[in-house]
Amino acid sequence: MSRVVVVTGASRGIGAATAEAFIRLGDTVISISRSGTGPAGVARGYSVDVADPEAIRDAFTAIVNEYGPIEVLVANAGITRDGLALRMSTDHWREVLSVNLDGSFYSAQAAMTSMIKNRQGSIIFIGSVSPFVGIPGQANYAAAKAGLVGLARSLATELARRNITVNVVAPGFIETDMTVGVANERDTVIAQIPAGRIGQVEDVASVITFLASQHARYITGAVLPVDGGLGMGL
Ligand code: NAI
């Protein structure tokens, strides 16, 4: 059973590990990232800015034309531009909303056209524990990631009868390029995590492949924390 799986932000970090996990399952994996690269084994890498709705539409049309209906979308591309709200520039506010929230919507909208026709699919948004625990300096990021929960739940309701599930995976601290900045505060961060360790990309990828599998076909509109207990299901 080889599915067509699109992973945004698959050039590194959680996205690359997720793409690798689907490749190991025998799926046809398409990577979308700014650089257009992806891990070994991806069928194709597209260089697209997810915040550009036209470019996203064109890329998804090209994917469907070449590989057939999309069965799984992992909307993972994301950025941070941290700073205290008092001094946060409008650019940093907009940039984070554009990539994390707008980009996820554009990707989901483009993918669902194909899923609705095919009457099956799984959309997985990569959220964060950030909106649930309150992290200073992340007003833009937390707002964008909280927005994904509302987006996912509306879509879950709209698409459930079409046999399409829509869920959010909410990672805590995961070791990637995005979190190198917290390297100096490693011990403080670990002290807050009940599991006593920072998460690895594979911890998140395995939950994503589960949500996209038949084992999870009755799960929709859910927010699944992958955070070693940091948010305790908030
Ligand atoms: P990363 O910085 O290692 O990778 C981000 C990926 O997104 C890269 O492939 C990058 O090219 C892509 N990307 C960024 N902006 C893009 C754009 N405009 N268009 C297309 N691609 C774009 O980050 P990481 O840690 O792997 O994060 C992946 C997702 O997980 C993000 O949505 C992030 O917010 C989320 N997350 C990460 C956590 C962590 O601790 N690392 C915790 C909670 C959530």
TrEMBL record:
Tell me yes or no: is Oxidoreductase among this UniProt entry's keywords: yes
Q: What Pfam families does the entry give?
A: adh_short_C2 (PF13561)
For this protein, what is any one GO molecular function term?
oxidoreductase activity, acting on the CH-OH group of donors, NAD or NADP as acceptor
Key words, A-Z: Oxidoreductase
Look up keyword Repressor and say if it applies: no
> Locate the Ketoreductase domain: which residues?
3-172
Instruction: Kindly list the residue ranges recorded as spanning the membrane.
Output: none
Q: What InterPro entries does its record include?
A: KR_dom, NAD(P)-bd_dom_sf, Sc_DH/Rdtase_CS, SDR_fam
Q: Which PANTHER family match?
A: 3-OXOACYL-[ACYL-CARRIER-PROTEIN] REDUCTASE, SHORT-CHAIN DEHYDROGENASES/REDUCTASES FAMILY MEMBER
Q: What family classification does the UniProt entry report for this protein?
A: Belongs to the short-chain dehydrogenases/reductases (SDR) family.
From the Swiss-Prot or TrEMBL record, give the protein name.
Answer: Unannotated protein
What is the species of this protein?
A: freshwater metagenome
Q: What is the lineage of its organism?
A: unclassified sequences, metagenomes, ecological metagenomes
